[in-house]
Write a structure and sequence with these properties.
Blueprint lengths: L4 E5 L5 H10 L3 E5 L3 H8 L10 H10 L3 E4 L7 E4 L5 E2 L3 E2 L2 H10 L8 E4 L7 H12 L16 E4 L9 H7 L2 E5 L2 H11 L7 E5 H32 L3 H8 L22 H8 L5 H25 L6 E5 L14 H11 L4 E5 L16 E2 L2 H7 L2 E4 L4 H4 L3 H4 L3 E4 L8
Parallel strand pairs: 1-2, 1-4, 2-3, 4-7, 7-8, 9-10, 11-12, 11-14, 12-13, 14-15
Antiparallel strand pairs: 5-6, 8-9
The structure holds ligand SAJ.
The site of ligand SAJ has 20 residues, from helix 8.
């Protein structure tokens, strides 16, 4: 089956780059989203999210007439669902966006179509997707649900790209193709082969769902280990950065870096899906989440100690984003720490975030000032490194040696 027309549901950080890359291979792509603003922006050949080179790829695809965005679904050969899967209170996965996507595409599905779930999902979500579609379309046979021979193919192929390197990783990363049946795997592999250079590895849908959650949990557990080491090292008066660099000289040790906590919408969220599915059994995974979630509190206490040394503390928080060299503030520990400092009346709080133009809503009206790095260096007596953005990495020892420094990223451990 050749894929002449592909529909991507959800045009966010994953859906839009995926749609644009497939369109760049000459396939007609219809992107569907609930945001009118996103649709208008994309149809003008522009982007509503920040990701290196994405603007160029989208503009080229729209200009060539291969990519079009719409608020309503239309018939296609394949549907790729890339909608958010956040968690609700109590860390339970919220699948309502997937359900809404199922309802949106169900009316236009035709025999022989392929439906792929890309959203990071708890185990069983792909099967649920098939049953939601079956409810809407009793005239079609969905795999794993209908007793008849399936005439629609459903698979899970989790996205695995790193924000900041999305376009490169979309093409070069290996993909896990989890079909509800082996025929579903075959169809989905055919689709991914149109734009993926990495290997496409077949498995079942449940294993593919768990594989994605496992990747992010592995990273979360490793970072929690590093964060725990940083707190132990503080207590024992050891430089944790030197410690980890030394331990990592062992050929079979690879400890990640401690930081102010774990942010973003993936690593801080996905492990909870495993905990929710197996609450008694997922002990390390839960503890790692708790350690990483507790780290911002620990950092705030260290900053308060530093500020207490001054009569008029001026605290400059370097970075608000959830990681280096991006503008994404979602689930950012740096933002939470800055907010906590403002609430706690620690002193005058300055925020330096070279990737944004105005103070985020959460910090407005809190007495926090968004300033340049230069200004912060001139007036602050406490310097807090929260994100390892490039301009902060370029600082020299004479920029900071008159300040009390709380360095959560190990930028100055070299001085
Ligand atoms: N962090 C540390 N120490 C480290 C590495 C990261 O504290 O050594 C922190 C970062 O500062 C950030 C958070 O962890 O706050 C997450 O950053 P990240 O770069 O590790 O990951 P994300 O959330 O940007 O992207 C991850 C990736 N998953 C893995 O590397 C296993 C990406 O490939 C996934 O596609 C993405 O999650 C996702 O969408 O699930």
């Amino acid at each position: 089956m050749a894929f002449k027309k592909v529909s991507v549901i959800g045009l966010g950080y994953i859906g839009l780059p995926t749609a644009a890359v497939i369109a760049s291979r000459g396939i007609e792509v219809i992107g569907v989203d609930v945001s009118q603003k996103a649709i208008e922006t994309i149809n003008q050949g522009k982007v509503h999210i920040v990701e290196p080179d994405l603007d160029m790829v989208v503009q080229a695809a729209v200009t060539m007439g291969k990519l079009r965005a719409s608020m309503t679904a239309e018939p296609a050969d394949a549907f790729m669902i890339a909608v958010p899967t956040p968690f609700k209170d109590g860390h339970q996965p919220d699948l309502s966006y997937i359900e809404a996507a199922a309802k949106a595409i169900a009316p236009v599905l035709e025999k022989g179509n392929l439906v792929v779930l890309e959203s990071t999902s708890p185990v069983g979500a792909t099967e649920k997707l098939a049953s939601w579609l079956q409810e809407q379309r009793p005239d079609l046979n969905f795999p794993g649900v209908s007793s008849g021979e399936p005439n629609i193919y459903v698979a899970h192929c989790p996205e695995r790209v790193l924000p900041g390197r999305v376009l490169e990783e979309l093409v070069s990363n290996d993909r896990i193709i989890g079909g509800i049946t082996s025929k579903c795997c075959e169809k989905a592999t055919e689709l991914y082969k149109t734009f993926v250079r990495g290997d496409c590895i077949s498995t079942n849908a449940r294993t593919a769902e768990m594989a994605k959650l496992t990747e992010n949990s592995f990273r979360d557990v490793n970072i929690a280990f590093a964060n725990e080491l940083s707190i132990i090292s503080d207590k024992l008066k050891i430089n944790v950065w030197e410690l980890i660099a030394l331990a990592n000289r062992h050929p079979r040790v690879n400890i990640l870096s401690p930081g102010p906590g774990v942010g973003g919408h993936c690593i801080a969220v996905d492990p909870w899906f495993i905990v929710d599915s197996a609450p008694e059994e997922a002990r390390i995974i839960r503890t790692a989440r708790e350690i990483n979630d507790h780290k911002p509190e620990y950092v705030v206490s260290k900053i308060k100690e530093a500020a207490d040394q001054f009569k008029r503390p001026v605290v400059a928080c370097l970075g608000l984003a959830f990681k280096a060299d991006i503008d994404d503030l979602r689930e950012s520990p740096a933002l939470d720490i800055t907010c906590e400092l403002a609430k706690a009346n620690v002193g005058q709080i300055l925020a330096v975030e070279p990737n944004i133009q105005e103070l985020p809503a959460k910090l407005q009206g809190q007495g926090v000032e968004l300033v340049s790095l230069q200004h912060a260096l001139e007036v602050a007596n406490v310097l807090v490194v929260l994100v390892d953005h490039k301009p902060f990495k370029a600082l020299q020892s004479n920029d900071i040696n008159t300040k009390v420094v709380v360095d959560t990223r190990g930028l100055f451990s070299r001085f």
